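Reviewers asked in the last cycle whether our approach scales beyond single polypeptides. To address this, we selected a multi-component target totalling 222 residues and predicted its structure end to end. The input consisted of the following lines:
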Amino acid sequence: EDQVTQSPEALRLQEGESSSLNCSYTVSGLRGLFWYRQDPGKGPEFLFTLYSAGEEKEKERLKATLTKKESFLHITAPKPEDSATYLCAVHPFTRQLTFGSGTQLTVLP
Amino acid sequence: DAGVTQSPTHLIKTRGQQVTLRCSPISGHKSVSWYQQVLGQGPQFIFQYYEKEERGRGNFPDRFSARQFPNYSSELNVNALLLGDSALYLCASSLGTGDYGYTFGSGTRLTVV
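The resulting structure, written as structure tokens, was:
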């Protein structure tokens, strides 16, 4: 069974204080790993797809990395507008997306 | 370009009633997936449809059903509503069922009282 565990559940940062979010997964046959951002009452907004171990992708203050068992979302010098829930999901070859429970990030000014 | 549109945005139903949720995918996208997200959890897969055919079903009871129309829009039906069905119902569209990104709508907030 596919499993995705995200940590921490909640994270409070001061503006400018860099940190990382973790996504640990077990899946047989990974097609891709997705990161999404979700604001309260809204649908998830696509950030990145990673396909193979060692791959990295960046977008503004966010950088996602992938190993065979984990993915990290690094946030450099965050701003209050980065406050949201960040979701990780795995997409196996023969099944649908399985999401983690998310990390709720709060960036204080 | 319009994104994924879902209707209604909010809905309140009574236990035992039936509900229909609607989704229009991004133009050119032929696959629609439905997810249920309860408060504090990640979305959980319910159904995927591609070219009007069911391509996947999650671990949900038979009270949940869906269909896709020739224009690729989709409906999710839930019968005999339970309090536990209260959640945000999300629709995601993609080009196909393979290695494609999924774009989510803003969801329908269903409250069962």
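Chain B has a mean pLDDT of 94. We regard this as preliminary and will revisit it once experimental data from Aim 1 are available.
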